[in-house]
Amino acid sequence: MDCLFCKIVNREIPGDIVFEDDEVLAFNDINPQAPTHVLIIPKRHIATLNDLEEGDLALVGRLQYVAARLARERGFAEEGYRVVMNCNDLGGQTVYHIHMHLMGGRRFTWPAG
């Protein structure tokens, strides 16, 4: 498989890892859009949100839990933060391995940008 994020999970290429457990890996984004910009991914390859199955509900919940935990640990949970998941090309997905963006440390506006 030629998936960038799978290569980070398998340690074939480096990643600035900030959290890891049996199911989830989190690492700093190489092109941060905020003072904190962490990507949170399942270790198991799932290409898009459209590929999720009912059995993946706990895994997606775990991604959200890790985002909230990292926000607390980094000290911006109470002030606020943004969590985003993109799906397919028009949704802004560039790596086809589901991932959650945790961004904090600045004020965000709507629409996203």
UniProtKB/TrEMBL annotation:
Gene Ontology molecular function, alphabetical: catalytic activity
InterPro entries: Histidine_triad_CS (IPR019808), Histidine_triad_HIT (IPR001310), HIT-like (IPR011146), HIT-like_sf (IPR036265)
Motif stretch (Histidine triad motif): 97-101
Active site: residue positions: 99
Domain of life: Bacteria
A Pfam family the protein falls into: HIT
Every HIT domain range: 4-113
Protein name: Histidine triad (HIT) family protein
Source organism per UniProt: Halomonas campaniensis
